[in-house]
């Protein structure tokens, strides 16, 4: 990606691992979801245990439709999966903690007049609950979870929804995330991307990102935001 020529106007934040750490039992959640998919006759491919839960669910939906299940049956199936995931997410809210340094970046970006939004695969209501817990709910104009729009990241419809709500252009945005899927989302939407490098996902997995910061030094985002926004307030 190239550095945008237009001044930065908006930041799209990923949530889990970028703003907060969840006390989230992802292993048990994936095991329960995949077990349910298999109980409905869907066989995971060889790499199935590593793929996105939501991608696997979409593939299972297509399988069930192809097998002659009714739309109503498929909808009930999808709703049950949503209930499984949401139960784990709500439980993970307890013990959630902020990524060090991120509050300062959010606050200074807001003070500089930048619009901010959250793009996440979490449910919007769970995100709002955690933002309220940490008194950050007033800094984000849009929270777009998987329940906000039918096609969520990495589909470009997800960031485009935020862009439309904020009244900005893709080239005026910056997206920040800690997962390669976040980079794919930004690429699909034509948005400049900052990779938050972690032990789980190293810099090599974000080779096409424009900027890199460590999850341990999130304050390094400030000079990036300052330079892109042409701001003297950061």
* Distance separating the two termini: 24 Å
Mean pLDDT: 89
| Rg from Cα | 18 Å
Structural class comes to: alpha/beta
Strand content: 5-15%
- Main β-sheet description: 6 strands, parallel
CATH class of the largest domain: Alpha Beta
Number of helices: 8
- Envelope shape: globular
Q: What is the second-level CATH architecture of the largest domain?
A: 3-Layer(aba) Sandwich
Q: Can you identify the CATH superfamily of the largest domain?
A: HAD superfamily/HAD-like
Helix content: 40-55%
- Order of adjacent strands in the largest pleated sheet: 5-4-1-6-7-8
Strand tally is: 8
Low-confidence runs:
none
Element pattern in H and E: EEHHHEHEHEHEHEEH
> How many structural domains in the coordinates?
2
Which fold name corresponds to the CATH topology of the largest domain? Rossmann fold
Structure notes:
The protein has 234 residues and is an alpha/beta fold. It has 2 domains: 10-22 and 97-229, Rossmann fold (3-Layer(aba) Sandwich), CATH 3.40.50; 26-93, no CATH class. The protein contains 8 helices and 8 strands; from the N terminus they run ββαααβαβαβαβαββα. Helix 1 runs antiparallel to helix 3.
Key traits:
single chain, 8 helices, 2 domains, two-stranded antiparallel sheet, six-stranded parallel sheet, Rossmann fold, 234 residues, alpha/beta
Strands, helices and their partners?
Layout: E1 10-13, E2 20-21, H1 26-39, H2 53-66, H3 71-93, E3 97-98, H4 102-111, E4 115-119, H5 124-133, E5 142-144, H6 157-166, E6 173-177, H7 180-189, E7 192-197, E8 211-214, H8 221-229
Parallel strand pairs: 1-4, 1-6, 4-5, 6-7, 7-8
Antiparallel strand pairs: 2-3
């Amino acid at each position: 990606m190239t550095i945008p020529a237009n001044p930065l106007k908006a930041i799209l934040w990923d949530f889990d691992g970028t703003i907060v750490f969840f006390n989230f039992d992802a292993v048990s959640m994936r095991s329960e979801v995949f077990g349910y998919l298999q109980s409905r006759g869907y066989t995971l491919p060889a790499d199935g245990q590593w793929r996105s839960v939501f991608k696997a669910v979409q593939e299972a939906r297509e399988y069930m439709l192809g097998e002659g299940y009714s739309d109503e049956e498929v909808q009930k199936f999808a709703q049950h999966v949503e209930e499984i995931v949401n139960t784990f997410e709500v439980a993970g809210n307890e013990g959630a903690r902020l990524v060090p340094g991120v509050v300062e970046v959010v606050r200074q970006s807001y003070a500089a007049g930048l619009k901010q939004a959250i793009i996440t695969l979490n449910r919007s209501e769970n995100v709002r609950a955690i933002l309220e817990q940490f008194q950050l709910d007033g800094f984000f104009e849009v929270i777009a979870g998987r329940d906000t729009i039918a096609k969520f990241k990495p589909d470009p419809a997800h960031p485009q929804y935020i862009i439309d709500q904020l009244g900005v252009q893709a080239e005026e945005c910056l997206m920040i995330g800690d997962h390669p899927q976040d980079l794919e989302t930004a690429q699909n939407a034509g948005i400049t991307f900052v990779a938050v490098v972690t032990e789980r996902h190293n810099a090599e997995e974000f080779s096409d990102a424009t900027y890199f910061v460590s999850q341990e030094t999130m304050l390094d985002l400030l000079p990036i935001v300052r330079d892109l926004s042409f701001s003297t307030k950061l």
